[in-house]
Amino acid sequence: MKQRIVAGNWKMNTLMHEASRLVEEVQQEVDARVIPSHIDIVVCPPFPWISDTAVRLSGNHGTHGSKKASVIRCGAQDCHHEVFGAFTGDVSAPMLVDVGCRDVIVGHSERRQFHGETNELIARKITAALRAGLRPIVCIGESSDERARGRTTEVVSEQIDELITYAGAEALNASVVAYEPLWAIGTGVAATTGQAQEVHALIRSRLTAHGAPDTPILYGGSVNATNAADYFACSEIDGALVGGAALSSTTFLAIINAACTAWSE
Ligand code: PGA
Fold this sequence. Notes:
Blueprint: E1 4-9, H1 16-30, E2 39-44, H2 47-58, E3 73-76, H3 93-98, E4 103-106, H4 109-115, H5 119-132, E5 135-140, H6 144-148, H7 152-167, H8 169-173, E6 176-179, H9 193-209, E7 217-220, H10 228-232, E8 239-242, H11 249-262
Parallel strand pairs: 1-2, 1-8, 2-3, 3-4, 4-5, 5-6, 6-7, 7-8
Helix pairs in contact: 1-2, 1-11, 5-7, 7-9
């Protein structure tokens, strides 16, 4: 069975008490039901809350002894490409594993845009993440200007090709790809299912041609409680990377419910 993923990217949001409450609310609901093993649920808090979140999800939080471990996986929003060293302010993949992370987002468009990350650097992060035992969630996507100029296919293909050149097909086959058109991120203007399906099919054929046929491909960009089911009904869409709607337990749980309905066995 194909692996499906609903991942929440909290970005630079929440204070500690808000993060604790959010994960607790999601955890309570999710763990009260049976989530099929082919659906992964991931939360990616800001770095300072990762340790606390991972401990809560492990069931070892609080004074009342050990509770059942959650099925929810803890992830991070970025990692450095080196293991350790003089890189002030950075966090390495082995550190993330050490505090309980299992997934890491790499190459998010906000990292590409505000931190100048290139496909070559992102490929090094993919390699570092996999070496440490993390599953990379690799973001790609075109800007509104590139789409307007009819360059979507070219841009997305180049991103895939360069990532494979630098990281190798095997690395991409062990990763998750998130197609996130920049114009849909945080704008409320989500891609139509047709637009998403078209690019996902392109990504799938590109990955398959390179020898990476197994990579789950997520859609990201203004996914919410209302439109999630439409994406999950699409044959080319294996899940969602959710930003704003992952900051409310109500909407994130509605998206998880939509995934469970779409992909129940
Ligand atoms: P959004 O963000 O759901 O708020 O559009 C998605 C993302 O950036 O991963």
